[in-house]
Amino acid sequence: MPLQPQADSVAKIVPLVFGRSCNLTLTSQMMTHIRKEEKLDDTILDCGGGVSVRKHHLSDAVSCSRHANNRNVWLNLRDRFPHPYTEDSALSWIKHCQSADSHAFSGAWSDEGGATGPRVPTQYAIVINGEAVGAIGLDFGSDVYFRTAELGYWLSEDHWGKGVMGRVVRAFTTWSWQTFDILVRLNAEVVATNIASTTLLERAGFEYEGRRRNAVCKVGVMQDVLIFGALRP
To answer: Domain N-acetyltransferase, which positions (predicted)?
Structure first.
């Protein structure tokens, strides 16, 4: 389930041809090697003002764990998002996102031939002034829902209320349509108390489609879920 802020802005799209636990630690030598390997520009969106969206890097684990280990962030997300959120949590998720098994075929799509482009990641880091402070991505449907995907995201509480997430969601939605021709619909679910997220989704072109009463239980409290959808323009 999504999380926080609002806003509008035009983002530059750069062409590009929810964790598990594990016992992983990064030594300083490993971090130095990783940073050297990650000098390639993996950015898919430049949202302006120091905000960008790029592929996850293993070196993001430290900053992601610091920003994600926040109860206020976790309360707006599904329980598969760990809490407490450790560096091992971040590393496990990042490695999953980097695995080809989690990627989706891009490019033009047809009933006969399927998608014609390469597999690309569906989950990305939100970066502000060089620091990973959140994430956004798509969870592709299966079976009869294979032409839809659910949008999910989270952002560090340090950056709530600044219009960051609204800009990112709008830009990422456009990028998704351009990258995955197979998609005809994007879904998003928000707990009814998360007013900021409902606002930003509507500004990003999603339409409110209904309310599922007492649909989720978070920390023992039953909550309504608001359903949003966006169709390919």
So the answer is: 75-227
- Give me the domain span that covers residue 161: 12-183
In a domain, 172, yes or no: yes
| 97 has pLDDT over 50 | yes
pLDDT of residue 39: 52
In a domain, 20, yes or no: yes
pTM to 2 decimals?
0.84
3-state SS, residue 89: helix
- Give the pLDDT score at 89: 97
Per-residue burial over 106-140, b if 16 or more Cβ lie within 10 Å, else e, is: beebeeeeebebeebbbbbbbbbeebbbbbbbbeb
Closest among 128, 135, 133, 142 to 97, alpha carbons compared: 135
Provide the pLDDT for residue 33: 46
What is the average per-residue pLDDT within 102-121? 96
Number of domains in the chain: 1
Nearest to 196 by CA among 230, 146, 231, 162: 162
Amino acid at 194: N
| pLDDT (average), residues 144-169 | 98
Whichever domain contains 93, its CATH number is 3.40.630.30
Domain assignment present for residue 18? The answer is yes
**The pLDDT of residue 10 is above 50:** no
Residue type for position 120: V
Vertex 156, ends 130 and 225: CA angle to 5°? Answer: 135
How many angstroms separate the Cα of 57 from the Cα of each of 31, 42, 169? 11, 9, 20
